[in-house]
Amino acid sequence: xxxxxxxxxxxxxxxxxxxxxxxxxxxxxxxxxxxxxxxxxxxxxxxxxxxxxxxxxxxxxxxxxxxxxxxxxxxxxxxxxxxxxxxxxxxxxxxxxxxxxx
Length: 102
Fold this sequence. Notes:
By secondary structure, the chain is of the alpha+beta class. The chain has a single domain (about 5-100), classed as Alpha-Beta Plaits (2-Layer Sandwich), CATH 3.30.70. It is built from three helices and four strands, in the order E-H-E-E-H-H-E. The protein has helices spanning about 20-35, 65-75, 80-85, and strands at about 5-15, 40-50, 55-65, 90-100. It has a four-stranded antiparallel beta sheet. Strand 2 (about 40-50) and strand 3 form a beta hairpin.
């Protein structure tokens, strides 16, 4: 029998190379903040350089329960909010919500 083991926000974006350092350290600061919140499981992000001068980013934030994810999303200190604040801003920013099934 399967069950949900995490509720996740998945963000993908292409960050301009000149904004990458600020983006990277902002995401690390977010991770430090998330560690203090109830229900937070983990925050992972992956990145790779692209030939066009952008960095492709995938960021996944996992929570124990959907209510905890919803509360965090309502507070506005999210991965996508941080990315939107970067200058220059990212392109192709997408945000999806998933359930991890085990």
